[in-house]
Protein backbone atom coordinates (compact mmCIF):
# COMPACT_ATOMS: atom_id res chain seq x y z
CA UNK A 1 0.00 0.00 0.00
CA UNK A 2 1.31 3.45 -0.86
CA UNK A 3 -0.44 5.39 1.92
CA UNK A 4 0.16 4.87 5.61
CA UNK A 5 -2.60 3.49 7.82
CA UNK A 6 -2.85 6.82 9.64
CA UNK A 7 -3.40 8.65 6.35
CA UNK A 8 -5.97 6.12 5.11
CA UNK A 9 -7.83 6.20 8.42
CA UNK A 10 -7.91 10.00 8.41
CA UNK A 11 -9.34 9.96 4.89
CA UNK A 12 -11.97 7.36 5.78
CA UNK A 13 -13.09 9.24 8.90
CA UNK A 14 -13.31 12.51 6.97
CA UNK A 15 -15.52 10.85 4.37
CA UNK A 16 -17.67 8.62 6.57
CA UNK A 17 -17.37 9.81 10.16
CA UNK A 18 -15.53 8.19 13.09
CA UNK A 19 -17.73 5.17 13.78
CA UNK A 20 -16.27 1.67 14.14
CA UNK A 21 -19.01 -0.95 13.69
CA UNK A 22 -18.39 -4.32 15.26
CA UNK A 23 -19.31 -7.64 13.69
CA UNK A 24 -19.74 -9.98 16.65
CA UNK A 25 -21.52 -13.21 15.67
CA UNK A 26 -22.42 -14.09 19.24
CA UNK A 27 -24.70 -17.15 19.51
CA UNK A 28 -27.33 -14.99 21.18
CA UNK A 29 -27.38 -12.56 18.27
CA UNK A 30 -27.56 -15.43 15.79
CA UNK A 31 -30.63 -16.67 17.66
CA UNK A 32 -32.16 -13.18 17.67
CA UNK A 33 -31.75 -13.10 13.90
CA UNK A 34 -33.43 -16.51 13.59
CA UNK A 35 -30.19 -18.15 12.52
CA UNK A 36 -28.64 -21.43 13.58
CA UNK A 37 -25.46 -21.47 15.66
CA UNK A 38 -23.42 -23.19 12.98
CA UNK A 39 -21.21 -22.17 10.06
CA UNK A 40 -24.22 -21.51 7.82
CA UNK A 41 -25.74 -19.16 10.40
CA UNK A 42 -22.37 -17.51 11.01
CA UNK A 43 -21.87 -16.87 7.31
CA UNK A 44 -25.37 -15.46 6.83
CA UNK A 45 -25.00 -13.18 9.84
CA UNK A 46 -21.52 -11.91 9.04
CA UNK A 47 -22.01 -11.30 5.34
CA UNK A 48 -25.36 -9.59 5.93
CA UNK A 49 -23.59 -7.23 8.34
CA UNK A 50 -20.91 -6.56 5.74
CA UNK A 51 -23.55 -5.87 3.08
CA UNK A 52 -25.35 -3.44 5.37
CA UNK A 53 -22.41 -1.64 6.97
CA UNK A 54 -19.25 -1.79 4.87
CA UNK A 55 -20.44 0.94 2.56
CA UNK A 56 -21.53 3.18 5.42
CA UNK A 57 -18.87 3.26 8.14
CA UNK A 58 -15.18 4.10 8.21
CA UNK A 59 -14.15 0.97 10.11
CA UNK A 60 -15.56 -2.55 10.44
CA UNK A 61 -14.34 -4.64 13.39
CA UNK A 62 -14.96 -8.39 13.14
CA UNK A 63 -14.30 -10.15 16.46
CA UNK A 64 -12.07 -13.06 15.45
CA UNK A 65 -12.96 -15.32 18.38
CA UNK A 66 -16.58 -15.72 17.26
CA UNK A 67 -15.35 -16.98 13.89
CA UNK A 68 -12.58 -19.17 15.30
CA UNK A 69 -15.16 -20.94 17.48
CA UNK A 70 -16.33 -22.75 14.32
CA UNK A 71 -12.87 -23.97 13.33
CA UNK A 72 -11.36 -23.68 9.88
CA UNK A 73 -14.73 -23.07 8.19
CA UNK A 74 -15.40 -20.20 10.56
CA UNK A 75 -11.99 -18.70 9.84
CA UNK A 76 -12.81 -18.97 6.13
CA UNK A 77 -15.89 -16.82 6.79
CA UNK A 78 -13.70 -14.27 8.59
CA UNK A 79 -11.45 -14.15 5.53
CA UNK A 80 -14.51 -13.34 3.38
CA UNK A 81 -15.60 -10.63 5.82
CA UNK A 82 -12.16 -9.02 5.60
CA UNK A 83 -12.02 -9.18 1.81
CA UNK A 84 -15.60 -8.06 1.15
CA UNK A 85 -15.50 -5.35 3.81
CA UNK A 86 -12.41 -3.82 2.25
CA UNK A 87 -13.81 -4.13 -1.27
CA UNK A 88 -16.84 -2.10 -0.14
CA UNK A 89 -14.60 0.72 1.08
CA UNK A 90 -14.41 0.16 4.82
CA UNK A 91 -11.17 -0.23 6.70
CA UNK A 92 -11.23 -3.60 8.47
CA UNK A 93 -9.85 -3.87 11.99
CA UNK A 94 -9.47 -7.53 12.95
CA UNK A 95 -10.17 -7.76 16.67
CA UNK A 96 -7.86 -10.65 17.55
CA UNK A 97 -5.98 -9.29 20.59
CA UNK A 98 -2.87 -11.31 19.81
CA UNK A 99 0.30 -11.03 21.89
CA UNK A 100 3.43 -13.16 22.17
CA UNK A 101 7.20 -12.97 21.84
CA UNK A 102 9.89 -13.50 19.24
CA UNK A 103 9.15 -15.74 16.27
CA UNK A 104 5.57 -16.35 17.45
CA UNK A 105 4.81 -12.63 17.44
CA UNK A 106 6.44 -12.42 14.02
CA UNK A 107 4.10 -15.18 12.82
CA UNK A 108 1.07 -13.30 14.14
CA UNK A 109 2.35 -10.19 12.36
CA UNK A 110 2.68 -12.16 9.12
CA UNK A 111 -0.88 -13.45 9.48
CA UNK A 112 -2.63 -10.18 10.31
CA UNK A 113 -0.44 -7.44 8.86
CA UNK A 114 1.33 -8.75 5.78
CA UNK A 115 0.10 -8.10 2.25
CA UNK A 116 -1.19 -11.29 0.67
CA UNK A 117 -2.35 -12.96 3.87
CA UNK A 118 -6.12 -13.69 3.77
CA UNK A 119 -6.37 -12.69 7.44
CA UNK A 120 -4.73 -9.31 6.94
CA UNK A 121 -7.22 -6.49 7.18
CA UNK A 122 -6.14 -2.89 7.59
CA UNK A 123 -5.28 -3.21 11.29
CA UNK A 124 -5.34 -5.66 14.18
CA UNK A 125 -5.77 -5.40 17.95
CA UNK A 126 -2.80 -6.59 20.05
CA UNK A 127 -2.05 -7.16 23.73
CA UNK A 128 1.18 -5.57 25.07
CA UNK A 129 1.22 -7.36 28.41
CA UNK A 130 4.35 -9.34 27.62
CA UNK A 131 6.01 -5.94 27.32
CA UNK A 132 5.46 -3.33 24.63
CA UNK A 133 8.77 -4.31 23.06
CA UNK A 134 7.38 -7.80 22.41
CA UNK A 135 5.21 -6.18 19.73
CA UNK A 136 8.20 -4.98 17.68
CA UNK A 137 7.66 -7.55 14.87
CA UNK A 138 4.10 -6.30 14.49
CA UNK A 139 5.14 -2.65 14.66
CA UNK A 140 7.64 -3.26 11.86
CA UNK A 141 5.21 -5.30 9.75
CA UNK A 142 2.50 -2.64 10.13
CA UNK A 143 4.85 0.11 8.96
CA UNK A 144 6.17 -1.94 6.05
CA UNK A 145 2.70 -2.89 4.85
CA UNK A 146 0.78 0.34 5.41
CA UNK A 147 -1.28 -1.18 8.20
CA UNK A 148 -2.08 -0.27 11.79
CA UNK A 149 -2.20 -1.85 15.22
CA UNK A 150 -4.41 -1.01 18.18
CA UNK A 151 -2.77 -1.85 21.50
CA UNK A 152 -4.78 -2.57 24.65
CA UNK A 153 -4.07 0.26 27.08
CA UNK A 154 -6.99 0.75 29.47
CA UNK A 155 -9.91 -1.64 29.28
CA UNK A 156 -13.23 -1.49 31.09
CA UNK A 157 -13.24 -4.92 32.74
CA UNK A 158 -12.63 -4.62 36.50
CA UNK A 159 -9.98 -7.36 36.52
CA UNK A 160 -7.73 -5.25 34.31
CA UNK A 161 -7.09 -2.62 36.96
CA UNK A 162 -4.72 -4.91 38.89
CA UNK A 163 -2.31 -4.86 35.95
CA UNK A 164 -3.10 -1.66 34.10
CA UNK A 165 -3.08 0.59 37.19
CA UNK A 166 0.10 -0.91 38.64
CA UNK A 167 3.09 1.43 38.62
CA UNK A 168 6.49 1.03 37.04
CA UNK A 169 9.77 1.93 38.74
CA UNK A 170 9.51 5.53 37.48
CA UNK A 171 6.03 5.93 38.99
CA UNK A 172 4.01 5.69 35.79
CA UNK A 173 1.03 3.39 35.56
CA UNK A 174 1.43 0.46 33.19
CA UNK A 175 -1.30 1.95 31.01
CA UNK A 176 0.55 5.27 30.78
CA UNK A 177 3.75 3.48 29.84
CA UNK A 178 1.86 1.83 26.96
CA UNK A 179 0.53 5.22 25.86
CA UNK A 180 4.04 6.67 25.94
CA UNK A 181 5.53 3.76 23.99
CA UNK A 182 2.90 4.16 21.29
CA UNK A 183 3.50 7.92 21.20
CA UNK A 184 7.22 7.34 20.70
CA UNK A 185 6.58 5.18 17.63
CA UNK A 186 4.04 7.68 16.26
CA UNK A 187 6.25 10.73 16.76
CA UNK A 188 6.50 12.83 13.62
CA UNK A 189 3.88 10.90 11.64
CA UNK A 190 1.58 13.02 9.49
CA UNK A 191 -1.40 13.21 9.63
CA UNK A 192 -1.52 10.42 12.22
CA UNK A 193 0.63 7.53 13.38
CA UNK A 194 -0.34 3.93 12.81
CA UNK A 195 -0.07 2.78 16.43
CA UNK A 196 -3.46 3.17 18.08
CA UNK A 197 -4.70 2.44 21.57
CA UNK A 198 -7.73 0.65 22.95
CA UNK A 199 -9.30 2.61 25.81
CA UNK A 200 -12.77 1.67 27.00
CA UNK A 201 -15.45 4.29 26.51
CA UNK A 202 -16.82 3.50 29.99
CA UNK A 203 -13.58 3.69 32.03
CA UNK A 204 -14.45 7.09 33.50
CA UNK A 205 -11.74 9.33 34.97
CA UNK A 206 -8.38 7.71 34.24
CA UNK A 207 -5.59 10.27 34.49
CA UNK A 208 -3.87 9.21 31.26
CA UNK A 209 -1.89 11.84 29.39
CA UNK A 210 -2.86 11.39 25.75
CA UNK A 211 -1.74 14.66 24.20
CA UNK A 212 1.46 13.24 22.65
CA UNK A 213 -0.07 10.04 21.23
CA UNK A 214 -0.45 11.27 17.62
CA UNK A 215 -2.48 8.14 16.87
CA UNK A 216 -6.05 6.84 16.86
CA UNK A 217 -7.95 5.56 19.89
CA UNK A 218 -10.49 2.77 19.65
CA UNK A 219 -13.21 3.25 22.27
CA UNK A 220 -15.30 0.09 22.72
CA UNK A 221 -18.43 0.30 24.83
CA UNK A 222 -20.43 2.89 22.90
CA UNK A 223 -24.16 2.23 23.02
CA UNK A 224 -25.25 -1.01 24.67
CA UNK A 225 -22.46 -0.94 27.25
CA UNK A 226 -23.46 2.49 28.47
CA UNK A 227 -21.31 5.12 26.78
CA UNK A 228 -22.82 7.98 24.81
CA UNK A 229 -21.48 11.29 23.50
CA UNK A 230 -21.21 12.84 26.96
CA UNK A 231 -19.22 9.88 28.31
CA UNK A 232 -16.82 10.01 25.38
CA UNK A 233 -16.21 13.70 26.01
CA UNK A 234 -15.59 13.06 29.70
CA UNK A 235 -13.18 10.16 29.07
CA UNK A 236 -11.20 11.55 26.15
CA UNK A 237 -11.38 15.35 26.39
CA UNK A 238 -9.00 17.02 23.94
CA UNK A 239 -8.08 13.65 22.41
CA UNK A 240 -11.65 13.20 21.14
CA UNK A 241 -10.87 14.11 17.50
CA UNK A 242 -8.79 10.93 17.23
CA UNK A 243 -11.35 8.62 18.90
CA UNK A 244 -13.19 5.84 17.06
CA UNK A 245 -16.28 4.96 19.12
CA UNK A 246 -17.01 1.26 18.62
CA UNK A 247 -20.56 -0.04 18.65
CA UNK A 248 -21.63 -3.62 18.03
CA UNK A 249 -24.81 -4.82 19.74
CA UNK A 250 -26.66 -1.52 19.45
CA UNK A 251 -26.39 -1.79 15.66
CA UNK A 252 -26.50 -5.56 15.18
CA UNK A 253 -29.69 -6.00 17.21
CA UNK A 254 -31.56 -4.42 14.28
CA UNK A 255 -30.71 -7.30 11.92
CA UNK A 256 -31.23 -9.26 9.84
CA UNK A 257 -32.92 -6.50 7.83
CA UNK A 258 -30.21 -4.71 5.83
CA UNK A 259 -32.06 -1.39 5.73
CA UNK A 260 -32.64 -1.50 9.50
CA UNK A 261 -28.95 -2.20 10.13
CA UNK A 262 -27.95 0.72 7.91
CA UNK A 263 -30.43 2.96 9.64
CA UNK A 264 -29.04 2.03 13.05
CA UNK A 265 -25.50 2.77 11.87
CA UNK A 266 -26.56 6.14 10.50
CA UNK A 267 -28.32 7.07 13.74
CA UNK A 268 -25.21 6.13 15.70
CA UNK A 269 -23.12 8.28 13.37
CA UNK A 270 -25.51 11.18 13.99
CA UNK A 271 -25.05 10.70 17.74
CA UNK A 272 -21.28 10.69 17.35
CA UNK A 273 -21.49 13.86 15.22
CA UNK A 274 -23.16 15.54 18.20
CA UNK A 275 -19.86 15.25 20.08
CA UNK A 276 -18.76 18.60 18.69
CA UNK A 277 -21.61 20.27 20.58
CA UNK A 278 -21.26 18.38 23.89
Walk me through the structure:
The chain has 278 residues and is α/β, with parallel strands linked by helices. It has one domain: TIM Barrel (Alpha-Beta Barrel). The chain is 44% helix and 15% strand. It contains twelve helices and eight strands. The protein has helices at 5-16, 27-32, 39-53, 64-68, 71-87, 102-113, 136-145, 161-164, 174-186, 229-236, 249-252, 258-273; strands at residues 20-23, 59-62, 91-98, 123-126, 148-154, 195-199, 217-220, 243-247. Strands 1-2-3-4-5-6-7-8 form an eight-stranded parallel beta barrel, surrounded by seven helices. α6 links the parallel β3 and β4. Its EC number is 4.1.1.23. It comes from Crossiella cryophila. This is Orotidine 5'-phosphate decarboxylase. The active site is at 97 (proton donor). It catalyses: orotidine 5'-phosphate + H(+) = UMP + CO2.
Amino acid sequence: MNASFGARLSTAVSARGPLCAGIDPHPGLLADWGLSADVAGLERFALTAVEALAGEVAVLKPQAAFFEAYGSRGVAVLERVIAEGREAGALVLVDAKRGDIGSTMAAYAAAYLTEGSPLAGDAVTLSPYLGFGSLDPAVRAAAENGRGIFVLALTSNPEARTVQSARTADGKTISQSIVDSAAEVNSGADPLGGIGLVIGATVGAHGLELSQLNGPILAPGYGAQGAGPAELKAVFGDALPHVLPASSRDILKHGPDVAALRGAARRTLDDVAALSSV
